[in-house]
Amino acid sequence: MIKSQFDGLAILLLVGLCLLFGLNQVVVKFGLEGVSPLMQAGLRSIGASVLLIAWMLWRGEKILRRDGAFWWGMLLGVLFALEFLFIYMALNLTTASRTTIFLYTSPFVVALGVHLFVPGEQLSKVQAAGLLVAFIGVFVAFRDSLDADASLLGDSLALVGAFFWGATTVVLKASPQRHQSPARVLLYQLVVSALILPLLSWLLNEPGIVSLTPSVIGSLLFQIVLMAFVGYMAWFWLLSHYPASKIASFTFLTPLFGVLFAWLILDEQLTFDMVGALLLVALGIYLVNRPARRTGKIV
């Protein structure tokens, strides 16, 4: 059953996941010292698939089952893999800051998709405005680093990546996959991407695995265990219990946490714009999740 409003557990879990996802942006940089991007994502999916299958077997949950959701699961896996393909292609052509801004148009894709295809999850005008305010907050956070190294193709590829990210959520909520357990939903995406991403890495002539230093191995373990297994499992649990567009509004916190961790761990610059950006994102999240006012006449 979908709950219309977040409770304390959901808010705590969402903020924690955004912290985890933001930290992952920094951890990936350590992994790139020894493993190319798509291969790194592929190894993450392979390792997390093994953990997830072991978890499902331990709990007695069937891995293969005739439930009418197989092809929808395969579609989700392909969308999941394409998302990473276009994001990494964008990063090769434009700056990380520009990629981040265009990537976080994804909540708008989710909002429009669930409005059209998922009954009962439509956003009001105030909630739509909240998404826009939160997006402006992300823009403010990254505007100082929007330099001249721009590429129309790179920006367009980032937008395509955002579309596939949002489309994954919409297909999940609008298809029979919404009745699956979070583990089964995640299994399709991990297994399909585990097959596709290493192949794409080879086709695009990535160097693959270059060096497995302790920091690179630590980065891979973090991504496999905490990000792809624990983090995504919790994410899909949330999607099975709460409105997708409201969950998507919290993702605007992720790049801000990413900047914060980059400052703490990598000693990257932190600007005063971050304070204003955080306030805007918080205001946007509040507007999206504010309970609707009930109006009525006393008869």
What does it look like?
It is globular, with a radius of gyration of 19 Å. 72% of the residues lie in helices and 0% in strands. With 299 residues, the chain is mostly helical. It has helices spanning 8-31, 37-59, 70-91, 96-103, 106-117, 125-142, 152-174, 182-203, 214-239, 244-250, 253-265, 273-289. Mean pLDDT is 85; it is low at 294-299. Helix 2 (37-59) runs antiparallel to helix 8, helix 5 runs antiparallel to helix 10 (244-250) and helix 6 (125-142) runs antiparallel to helix 12 (273-289). It contains twelve helices and no strands. The chain has one domain. The longest helix is centred in the C-terminal third of the chain and has 26 residues, at 214-239. The chain starts with 7 loop residues before the first helix and ends in a 10-residue tail after the last helix. It is found in: Membrane. Belongs to the EamA transporter family. Residues 9-142, 153-289 form the EamA domain. The chain crosses the membrane at residues 41-58, 70-89, 101-119, 126-146, 152-173, 185-204, 216-240, 247-266, 272-289. This is DMT family transporter.
Please sum up the structure shown.
The chain has twelve helices and no strands.
